[in-house]
TrEMBL record, chains A, B, C, D:
Residues 24-106 form the ACT domain. CDD domains: ACT_F4HF-DF, FMT_core_Formyl-FH4-Hydrolase_C. Its EC number is 3.5.1.10. Pathway: Purine metabolism; IMP biosynthesis via de novo pathway; formate from 10-formyl-5,6,7,8-tetrahydrofolate: step 1/1. Keywords: Hydrolase, One-carbon metabolism, Purine biosynthesis. This is Formyltetrahydrofolate deformylase. InterPro entries: ACT-like_dom_sf, ACT_dom, Formyl-FH4-Hydrolase_C, Formyl_transf_N, Formyl_transf_N_sf, PurU, PurU_ACT. GO terms for molecular function: formyltetrahydrofolate deformylase activity.
Length: 303, 303, 303, 303
């Protein structure tokens, strides 16, 4: 089992659906006429071919501008520094915009935090193994040992960090030691612990959570019980970036499923679990492909 | 135009999809073994043929029992009194259950309240005209004259009852005069006024409202603006019975539609309007066919 | 009624959601590096601000390239000729690409063909009246007089062109006389007649049809009866461009709705009708906003 | 790993969501007045409490009648023979109906056939392990060894039966030896082999297949390539009972997902795979809970 996983990881990126010599470029900042032309002129000037381009302005008059471009260029690794330099000069300097350039053949590294339930975790591990998610998973961290064997069967390291009791500082310190320098983002795959503001800041990478309701309905704990109590006809799930404000972070993706009076709270939980894993997998895929741009309390998603 | 509508209304019920000699029977109360057998034995004893039967118990051990049965029997009108008497004796008397028996060939009468926007109103009028809703519409009441001509083009009476200013008592008194004895239920088709508790009680008939969000998210006014502000990826609508507690009444039906960062608040409103009319039409159809049973803060919907 | 419609039509485009001084530009042809940069440089050179840009290549290596750009520029009407000239030189000449430039404040003109059923027709008329479709409707043509009054109540001219019997040439000749020079596209809103290849060619404008199944399932007549016979759990609808090959034209949009064993063929038809009108309205909106590009047997839809 | 699975299987049925002392009763045949009353009277006479009752008649006048009843009775195992005898007399004898009675605490035994792809297989194994499917899985059979380790990690026996070459008779003989007496139904979880009519007959149990298109569109091999070729905007999957007529068996469940011009055939396959596993899991759950009744080329699904 682990041997298969290892072999798969050894395949060159192209074999796993990640195109060689492709890069993503995110540009955002204050909108002005001429940005798209300037960006594409830089890329064209370096012999790059634009593979896809998505652009959005939240207000043509003085709003914010967002652009995601995927381009290919031969010998990308060699050319990236000079492309970056041109963008710094013409796009950052000329227009005062922020930009981020990334070699798409280098998958992002994600740490997954889980607790006892494994539906979201397994879905992510399975999709990664089958090449549906362009990420590597250097670690799964859990406050329970239940999923250890399952995680390791995918060839993924599992770390057990107990987190009982009200003081989470020791657990969070251990988390930070494990994460430091090893990951590009974190996914909370039904990790049933609240992260401290200090942890979020010190982690220094984006953290994606899956909440088991269609936020902002049923904020907080026990959403399925609340949904049953209120008698709703839909239950859902929300993937969002984690911020200091619990359940208030920018929403990446949401979906719902129809339920009826005949469904018990346990049925809602079972049906909701299918939505949770689907929503979280989409959010992780989009984030890993630089399709999500955070902007204040919102996200721009070029899906 | 009105002549067409009149001709349609003159058609016998069977021509409009309402089966002759069919009745619905709703039974509910405390669950006990033997209820279904007792009810079906009564119907069978009167020569009735069960066309459909839906049954639900929210807890087999001492919970609440709900049953909807549609049956046919020759000469229904003549037989209903004796069937009712048997049910009173065997079902109400024997089991202590409530029941309601209704000749399905007699459509329910609904008053529609509207304001300026006509999407929900027009959908109901159109479906009623085409025989998709087994109701008659003796009146549309509005606090604005805008939709008068449209309503009358369907051959439906329109009453303009202004409702400006904080004191709604005169308007509500006029509403009660118009409704008294003339309707079996009321539909608020984006009627942008809050009804007083006194009105709800004195109206004495079920009132169905369409709320433009997937409740309980975005309770109160301006849900689309709130949805835009929160950055949700779905907007929706909720049809519910009106109670004293604003936006808290039992939910009949809900649905959502996917939106994106590129949609403005106006786009959300436009896309939501399609969901609103679909959700409200389903709720009205189900209510008119006795498919919805209220139970505390919930509904049982045998759709 | 007609007075209201007239007043609405008199409103300036901006009031109806059509932005003043905005144009759409479609570019397509063989893919090569540098197209996006060249196009945006032309626009930028004329002082245009790019409002949105969608781009797609069906194969980065020698495939076909498609780009839809919406831009704004002050005094668009005056500037269009010189922008067109630059595009001819740099984009058509330099890259051998086709392009189409259109002032978005000039709505497309659509003729709607209908028969007896009015659900699709009414939905289009209503959305146009409420500013949801950026089109004008100079005429509705039908082979039955049933919907005349309804159409005229929207202030839209209605023409009755009987089409009984096997020889449609007289009817089609009349259609061509009515359409000539007056419309930019045609919509068949459940028009239950097959158009001849000659008519399609001589009409010389795109024709959009709504087929009442999720093509390619249930090609031909009577799809709901076939769906009932086959026992499917979903019924749907397909909007497509009309070609000589019946039900084989490029698909613009499709959707489905869940049905069950309990639904009769008439129920399927009723539930399908809701899907038909939704699918057709989306297709018409996208076509009217230049969001659909035909490419062989396919469409590129920048929705 | 296997130890966990074993422990789970050792739990009493009630702990896995299968209610003790509950039975399902399916009744079907020619419709006549009084069936529901007769069936419920038999159950009531034996002290049974009806937990749920679904009933359907495809034509009140001389059509076919279908009823699914779940009831509870103390000491079910002891009482079943006498209840069966009463049903034989009163329902089979009195009305000429077929019936099937089953103790719901005894899970059905299913053999899963798989090939190389594991998305449907894994979903079934995972749901069974988590108590979402009330079945036991005595064996997985595959014509490829790829999924052996994964299957065995769930504590489920795996049998490798090669099936290369045109003559499948040896493989099918081996299949029949493995199945004989050991299973109640078979699931083809993307088993990429066509079963002979003889095998289907000799297996003697229902066989459920997942087809990777929304049948009847794209019958036969390569549906995703055909879908890409046709330019559809939805792809889907269909779970159906296997009959001699390939892809023509009674449909149990279908669903679709939206795709766009930008999706490659590989993307369609990836997105379709999510629908396949969801549709197949629902079909297996419904079949295992006696919610599906076959009737000619159709199914009645009391979901």
């Amino acid at each position: 089992m682990s041997s298969r996983a290892t072999l798969l990881a050894d395949k060159p990126p192209a074999a796993r659906g990640i195109a060689r010599d492709h890069a993503s470029l995110i540009v955002h900042g204050a909108d002005r006429p001429g940005i798209v032309a300037a960006v594409t002129a830089v890329l064209s000037g370096h012999g790059a071919n634009i593979v896809s381009l998505d652009q959005y302005s939240d207000n043509p008059e003085g709003g914010a501008f967002f652009q995601r471009t995927v381009f290919s260029v031969p010998d990308l690794t060699l050319r990236l520094p000079e492309i970056e330099e041109s963008l710094s000069e013409r796009v950052a300097g000329g227009f005062g915009l922020d930009f981020a350039l990334r070699d798409l053949s280098v998958p992002k590294r994600v740490a997954i935090f889980a607790s006892k339930s494994d539906h979201c975790l397994l879905d992510l591990l399975w999709r990664q193994k089958h090449g549906e998610l362009a990420v590597t998973i250097p670690m799964v961290i859990s406050n329970h040992p239940d999923v250890a064997e399952e995680v390791r069967s995918f060839g993924v390291p599992f770390f057990y960090v107990p987190s009982a009791g009200p003081d989470k500082s020791a657990a969070e310190a251990e988390h930070l030691r494990l994460l430091a320098g090893n990951v590009d983002f974190v996914v909370l795959a039904r990790y049933m612990q609240i992260l401290s503001a200090e942890f979020i800041e010190r982690a220094g990478v984006p953290i994606i959570n899956i909440h088991h309701s269609f936020l902002p309905a049923f904020i907080g704990a026990g959403p399925y019980a609340k949904a049953k109590e209120r008698g709703v006809k839909l239950v859902g799930a929300t993937a969002h970036y984690v911020t200091e404000d619990l359940d208030e972070g920018p929403i990446i993706e949401q979906d719902v499923v129809r339920v009826s009076h005949g469904d018990t709270a346990a049925d809602l939980q079972r049906r909701g679990a299918d939505v949770e894993r689907a929503v979280l997998s989409r959010a992780v895929r989009w984030h890993s492909e630089d399709r999500v741009i955070r902007h204040g309390k919102h996200t721009i998603v070029f899906a």
